[in-house]
Structures are given as structure tokens and as C-alpha cells.
Fold:
Amino acid sequence: MLSLVIVVLLIALIMLRVPVSVAILGTAILGLIAIGGPETAIQVIETSPFAAVRSNSLSAVPLFILMAQLMLMSGLLDSLFDTARALVGRIRGGTAIASVGAGTAFAAVSGSSTAAAATLAQTSSKRMIDEGYARETATGLVAVVGTLAAMIPPSIILVFYAITAEAPVGDVLVAGFFPGLLVATSLIAVMYLGLLRNRDAAPRGKAYTVKEKMHYLLHASPLILIFAAVVGSIFLGIATPTEAATLGVLAALVLVIARRRWNTDKFTQCLMDTVKTTGMIFAIIMSAHVLGHFLTETRVTPRLVNAIGESAWPPLLIMVLIGAVYVVLGFFMDQIAIIALTVPVTLPIIEALGYDAVWFGIFIVLLAETGMVTPPMGLNVFVVAKAVRVNPMVVFRGAFPHVLAMLTIAGITLLWPEVVMRVPDLMKSGG
Structure:
């Protein structure tokens, strides 16, 4: 009963916009005091938070964040969009396909959903509207494309999950690659299904010569080098995620200088944003460990595992119900908060059902990411709506068919986990 009260209080505080780390830590302390008095709470606070952030794997987090900031500073996304548009813009819906391609490529080197959505909105959404695309299509598609940054490595969300679940960071990162490509493909497929009803909703774009296409490809080619430096080194076992992140930061810094985008004030702002985001993530990790002690004392997780084990429900049904919970949580909470609150409870359950921790990370991140483009929070939607100056409901309507596609991909990964595990298995076997 005490656990239920604490969880309800925690969710209420988060929905009231209390900072996630403060809400988690405050309710955890109340729970510990209720169980063992102030002495118990003090003992846990003296040791648990510091132990939580001693992991060497955590050093990859600020490095990936800094790399994303430098990538934005370099202006590479503009080149990516122009390159993709030069390659496929002539076909019907080509500019929309270019937006998906540029967003997918940018996700591979940024790891920031909102940053990708905001930058894409400034480039591709406005370009599509100018070309005659329906506003729902031009904005909803871009809002959903931004969520790919949480799936395609390097992803800050996936690193956070791996640390919380104590799963191999490298395995979790590369596991998101193929499902992320599936989501990107599904976005294009949904867009073309919409064309069956209204062919004018996605007009043709400008035709480019071979020389122009090669020119744009050359300008976007640094992306391949940075992606190879980060994800390739992890996949081949050449570097740890932390070492790969360091290579990524160095490559991004060289790119900023080479593209003549260096600005001391902007670089200082990049560092400040990195420190702020890292501090927020570390605060949540430390608070979550204190909450974990409370849950351990109340034995909530073992009781749930035993109850599910004694039930007659098939594992697939249980996973569908767990997935539905993550979708609902995504409507009201951000992904880091969802992972910090739920993984310590749900991970033992799914492992008892025979599922892999690496697979589970991709599954829940994909489900929780739908909350970035669904009411009432829909952070990506509001970012795009503000950038393009349209009503958020226009963006929500445009994103809805793509949300259904994301849920379908999640269902595919549930029925066939090898879709997620294929790349990590290849990495372990040496290719």
C-alpha cells in the first residue's frame, strides 16, 4: 500500500511540472522515512547517489551531448537536407522523402530529438509548405522524424537506459539502428499511402543534374566519417562507447572549424548546454537509485514477478499490457523520467518472461517516443509548431498516421525480437 501511495504521489508531482529529479528524490525520502525512520533515509542518501554516478559508462553521456551540440553548430543538417533533396526531390513527394532521409542521417550523429525536430522545421517543413505540401504533412512528418534521434545511435536515451538497466551500452546503442531504419521507412510508406487519396498533397520538386548531385554529396560526406568514427568503432569493438564518443566530439569539432562555423560565444553556449543537460540526467540517475532502495525495501518487484509467474496469462499478453502502460506514460512524462521510474520494476518481470534486456530497451524507447508527438505534451509537436508558426493541432493531425506506424513497428519487434537483436548478435560474433 505504501508503495502505491508513493508512486501516485510521484506521478502527481511530475504532472504538476515539479523537476523530475526533485520529485523522485523527495518521494523516495518520504518512503524511506515511512519504512525505517529518518536514520534509514540518511544512510541511503549518504551512499547511494554517489555510487550511482561512479560508473565509467556515464562519461559517454556528456560527450555525446557535446557532440550533438557541435553538430548543430556546424550547420550540417542544412547540407544533409539539400543533398537528400537533390537525390530524390524530382519524384513525387521527394522533398518529404528528403526530410526523412536528412532527419535519419542527422539522428545518427546528434542523439537529440527536439534539436533534430527544431532544425528540420526551420529547413524542410518551410520548404515543403512553399512547394505546396499540405501543412499537416509538412509539419507532422518532421515532428515524427525528430524522434528517430532517440533510436538511431548514438542516442542519449539509449545510453541512459543501458546504465539504468545495467545492460551493455554498446549493445543497446547498436540495437536501435535497424528498428530506427524501419521507422524511417514506415514514415515514407505512410506518406505515400496518403497520396492515394490526394496526389496533390505531395508535389514533385526540382530536378538536379548529376554534377549538382555530386556537389551536394561532397558537402554532406563528413557525416559518413563521423558516423563511422562513432558507431563503426563501437560495432567493430575498436572502442568503448566512451572512447567512441570522444572520437565523435573531436570529429564534430574538426567539422565546425572546417565549415568555418567556429564562434567562441556559440562554443561557450554549447559547453553550457552540455553541462546543464548532463547535470539534469545525473540528478535523475542519483534520485532513481535512492528510489530503487525504497523499492527494494518494500519488495515490490519480487512480489510482482511472483504474481505474474503464478498467473495463467501468456507472456505475449503481459508484454502487450506493459507496452500499453509505456504508451500512456509517454503521453504525460518525458522519456528519461519514464525509464528512471519504471525500468527497475519492469526489467525483472520481462527477464522472468524470457525477454532480453537489450531488446526491452529498444521496445520501450520506441513506445515512449510516441509521447513526443501525441497530446497532451507532444514536445516535438510544439517545437515544430512554434518554428513554422502553425496551430499545434495541425501538427498533431499530421503526426497521427505516423504514430500508428511507430506502434506497428513496436508490435513487429515484440513478435520478432530478432529484428532488434540481429545487429548486437553480429557485433558479438565479429560481423
User: Anything to note?
Assistant: The two ends are 50 Å apart (CA to CA). The longest helix spans residues 264-298. The chain is about 80% helix and 0% strand. Residues 87 and 213 are 6 Å apart (CA to CA).
